[in-house]
Specification:
508 residues, Outer membrane efflux proteins (OEP)
């Protein structure tokens, strides 16, 4: 019996060796990143105007918000990166895709590895009154290994690996968007504060004018028209403040949500400077075309192409026979004890082949190929949209910067006009309408200057977001807070999956 078992084992080994030698074909297209032909020679003519003069300090696009030299903004970004729920979800999707990659990798090993066992007791009684009891038992080991003859499992691993990196890039893109959102909301909040300050300052000036005209009207030295015009302007300014306060509260609440907090107090804003930063031009370390292709969303789109490319190969393997090796070892017996026990051994190759599928498999290959082309077109479109975002942001940066100097001079001129109008009115050389017009012009110009400065800051933020700036390499253990990881580990055995470092990102 033992010699026969050894002979069968040797035969099995030879069969395995012979089949493995021939199992070297991988179906489906090998991944090649889609070519963006126009990008090699593309560079927005606006870039040099943003970059500024040579010799200026360079800015790392990954930490572009340091350009504003604002400790409050730095603190808010740091809090958002650790507490934002959407970013945590993106981190959990990285873990999910990593587990899915582990499932795909299991295809490298025998797919069937089972231990079986059964015990049965049978009692029979005949009409003659005889009574017989029998018992049986069996134990066995079954193994089955579908050889990766056509690359079904290697392509599945390739697809899962690309999907994993796609989730990593999506998490990084979440950082990009979150950082830009925090900066945008923070400076929009400060802008509204300044607009409220301007409105209240104008209201105080207009209130004083209203009180003067009211006194003059009562004394008969001024017409009612002057009084009503002064009142109209004063009340209009007062009525604008509640709307600004509504917007301020909404921006405050939006910031709270980005920081993973309920609407309420933001102590980080308590001591903020009520002015907007002056943004100095700074050179970038790389040209925009290079930075565009490193945008996380572009890398994610490329990874989707890679994943879908492998799926075409997986679908094509269904057109060919599935070749497997199987083996089973079993021990069975029964009672009464004088019954013979049996040792059984089965080993050998097998195959299955869907010969008649009525076009199901071929059409599935076509579906996967169509999805691959869709992913390629989506990648190309993502690059186009990225270039458009960059160019849109660049022109906004340039033109809002060009407006700053004229806007400042216009504000100073409007303030001087108001001063002269008040003087001439007090001296009796001009009517009150000139004062009203000058007040309206000064108030409007001050707000226009502020809004243009805010738009310039927003354009700078959009520019760096368009370059894909604002993400940092994040180890797995920092994607999710410690408390959440502990909760997950208490529910399931994550092993080292939740702690180990990520594989190196593929180069763009």
């Amino acid at each position: 019996m033992l010699n026969r078992f050894i002979f069968l084992a040797k035969t099995f080994s030879v069969s395995v060796f012979a089949i493995v030698l021939t199992a070297c074909t991988t179906l489906g297209p090998d991944y090649k990143e889609p070519d963006v032909a126009w990008l090699a020679d593309w560079e927005s003519e606006l870039y040099s105007q943003i970059e500024g003069a040579s010799g200026q300090s360079q800015v790392d696009a990954q930490i572009w918000w340091h350009l504003f030299d604002d400790p409050v903004l730095n603190q808010l970004v740091e809090i958002a990166r650790s507490e934002n729920p959407s970013l945590r979800i993106a981190g959990l999707r990285v873990l999910e895709s990593r587990a899915a990659l582990g499932i795909a990798n299991s295809g490298r090993y025998p797919q069937l590895q089972q231990a079986t066992g059964a015990i049965a007791y049978v009692n029979t009684q005949s009409s003659s009154g005889s009574d017989q009891s029998l018992g049986s038992y069996e134990v066995g080991l079954n193994a089955g290994w579908e050889l990766d003859f056509w690359g079904r499992y290697s392509r599945s691993i390739e697809s899962a690996d690309a999907a994993f990196f796609s989730s990593v890039f999506n998490q990084q893109n979440g950082q990009v968007l979150l950082t830009a959102q925090v900066a945008d909301l923070y400076y929009a909040y400060r802008t509204i504060l300044l607009r409220i300050d301007i409105a209240r300052k104008n209201a105080r000036i207009q209130k004083r004018s209203y009180e003067i005209t009211e006194a003059l009207f009562k004394s008969g030295a001024s017409a009612e028209l002057d009084l009503q015009q002064a009142k109209t302007q004063y009340m209009a300014t007062l009525s604008s403040i509640p709307g600004l306060e509504i917007a301020l509260r909404q921006l405050h609440n939006n910031l709270c949500v980005l920081l993973g907090r309920p609407p309420g107090s933001l102590p980080e804003l308590d001591n903020e400077v009520r002015s907007l930063p002056v943004v100095n031009r700074a050179a970038l370390e790389e040209v925009p075309a290079q930075l565009l292709m490193r945008r996380p969303d572009i890398r994610a789109a490329a990874s989707q192409v890679a994943s879908q490319s492998a799926q075409v190969g997986v679908a094509e393997t269904e057109l060919y026979p599935s070749i497997s090796l199987f083996g089973n070892l079993g021990w069975s017996g029964s009672t009464p004890s004088d019954s013979a026990n049996t040792l059984s051994l089965g080993i050998g190759p097998s195959f299955t082949w869907n010969l008649f599928d009525h076009g199901r498999i071929k059409n599935n290959v076509r579906i996967q190929d169509a999805r691959l082309q869709q992913a390629i077109e989506s990648f190309q479109n993502s690059v186009l949209l990225a270039a458009r975002e960059l160019d849109d942001a660049a022109i906004s940066v340039i033109k809002t910067r060009e407006q700053q100097s004229p806007q400042r001079e216009s504000t100073l001129a409007a303030e001087r006009s108001l001063e002269l109008a008040n003087t001439r009115y007090r001296e009796g050389y001009a009517d009150f309408q000139r004062v009203i017009d000058a007040q309206r012009a000064a108030a409007g110009q001050a707000e226009r200057e502020l809004i243009n400065d805010a738009n310039h800051i927003s354009a700078v933020i959009s520019f760096y977001r368009a370059l894909g700036g604002g993400w940092l390499e994040t180890p797995v253990e920092k994607l999710i807070p410690q408390s959440t990881r502990e909760t997950m580990e208490s529910r399931s055995d994550w092993g080292d999956l939740i702690q180990s470092p990520d594989p190196a990102d593929p180069e763009p």
